Amino acid sequence: QVQLVESGGGLVQPGGSLRLSCAASGFTFSSYAMSWVRQAPGKGLEWVSCISSIGGNTFYVDSVKGRFTISRDNAKNTVYLQMNSLKPDDTAVYYCTKHSQGGYDYWGQGTQVTVSS
User: Fold this and answer.
1) Contact predicate 83/18, CB 8 Å
2) Which of 1, 26, 29, 50 is least enclosed by beta carbons within 10 angstroms?
3) Could you count the other beta carbons within 10 Å of the beta carbon of residue 37?
4) 96: helix, coil or strand?
5) Is 60 exposed, middle or buried (0-12, 13-18, 19+ CB in 10 A)?
6) Alpha-carbon distance 23 to 40, whole Å?
């Protein structure tokens, strides 16, 4: 069965960095684009970034451009989100998602990122 397991969240001060990881299993990882989606307290889901199946194309929401970098290692079935210059507004639960035709068909359990002094 498909599993997506996020890790790497935590508490960090403003301006700090974190690297999120998402370990995938149960499907041919290298055949699918992947995204990171977040949900801030009391708010709806927000798409953050996506990466194409072989990693040649990446996209970001404007609010994280220049600060976050998405990458993947298809040999390790893992997608990453490097987050630098973190701001309190980045506080959210971050989810790893697998793309399917028309949307996302699988989600991880999420990892909490809290940016606070």
Assistant:
1) yes
2) 1
3) 21
4) strand
5) middle
6) 22
**What's the sign of the alpha-carbon dihedral 89, 91, 92, 96?**
positive
* Separation CA 114–CA 107 (nearest Å): 20
What does 38-80 look like in DSSP terms, one character per residue? EE-TTS-EEEEEEE-TTSS-EEE-GGGTTTEEEEEETTTTEEE
pLDDT tens digits along 9-53? 999 999 999 999 999 999 999 999 999 999 999 999 999 999 999
Within 10 A of 74 (CB to CB), how many other CB atoms are there?
15
Q: What is the pLDDT of residues 69-96, one digit of tens each?
A: 999 999 999 999 999 999 999 999 999 9
Tell how strand 111-115 and strand 10-12 pair up. Answer: parallel
How is residue 53 written in tokens? 């199946």
Confidence check: pLDDT of 55 > 90: no
